[in-house]
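Hi V.,

Quick status before I head out on leave. The structure for the redesign project is tokenized and pasted below; the design run finished overnight.
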């Protein structure tokens, strides 16, 4: 149930789609649970609750607290974290942390979709500028700068220990590879024929490169950046492009004024 309402101070006032008006209208939305008497053609409401749009600030606060806690856990306090570079979850045994982080990423994905629809509604359907309501640029700026930060922060928490464990795991292979190369060089120097080890060295080099590629170090791995593009950048393109256009126009006007 939608009822129109003007102004900005009424709790829960926002843009909702009205089936009667066949367009989004500014007002309040309510979810009503009713019993309907077919013979009397009468509705008897049992429960009514106001529909509230998601509040990005509350979600951001939860994500910030979680990320800050992870950074303290990995980097400040000396906890014995069992990081296994070749763990079957392909996350060095930290998949649970990645799963919790992805929950917040999905939240930002939904917020990005909501803001994108809001931008399209303003610019295309209502044909009014975003600056018509000062809250729009503030909300867009809040999302554009905070969403990437909160995406990367929980992944950055275990970065140091994942990098350290990866180096520790691969170092013996690199040392063995280097020793074999140095031994062949020494044999060449004294004029003797070195043993045919090129195939084995090539296999060892391939293994080292594969481990470097497959063992992740958050947030600088391909999977993390793919998730970032899918959950933060892609759904917010209708938000980012108008914001960048607005920012570029403001900078251009400012430079014109100075000159």
């Amino acid at each position: 149930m939608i009822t129109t309402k003007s102004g900005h101070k009424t709790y829960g006032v926002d843009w909702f789609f009205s089936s009667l008006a066949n367009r989004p209208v500014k007002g309040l939305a309510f979810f009503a649970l009713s019993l309907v008497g077919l013979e009397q053609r009468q509705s008897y409401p049992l429960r009514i609750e106001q529909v509230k749009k998601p509040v990005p600030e509350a979600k951001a606060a939860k994500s910030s607290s979680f990320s800050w806690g992870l950074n303290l856990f990995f980097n400040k306090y000396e906890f014995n974290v069992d990081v296994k570079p070749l763990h079957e979850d392909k996350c060095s045994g930290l998949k649970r942390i990645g799963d919790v982080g992805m929950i917040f990423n999905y939240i930002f994905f939904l917020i990005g979709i909501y803001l994108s629809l809001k931008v399209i509604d303003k610019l295309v359907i209502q044909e009014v500028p975003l600056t018509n309501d000062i809250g729009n640029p503030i909300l867009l700026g809040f999302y554009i700068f905070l969403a990437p930060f909160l995406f990367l922060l929980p992944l950055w928490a275990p970065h140091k220990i994942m990098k350290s464990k990866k180096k520790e795991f691969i170092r013996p292979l690199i040392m063995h590879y280097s020793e074999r190369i140095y031994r062949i060089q020494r044999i060449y120097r004294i004029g003797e024929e070195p043993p045919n080890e090129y195939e084995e060295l090539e296999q060892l080099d391939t293994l080292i490169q594969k481990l470097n590629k497959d063992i992740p170090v958050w947030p600088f791995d391909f999977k993390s950046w793919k998730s970032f593009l899918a959950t933060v950048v892609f759904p917010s393109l209708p938000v980012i492009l108008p914001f960048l256009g607005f920012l570029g126009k403001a900078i251009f006007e400012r430079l014109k004024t100075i000159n």
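Above is the designed sequence. Residues 95-125 form the longest helix (31 residues).

G. will cover questions while I'm gone.

Best,
W.
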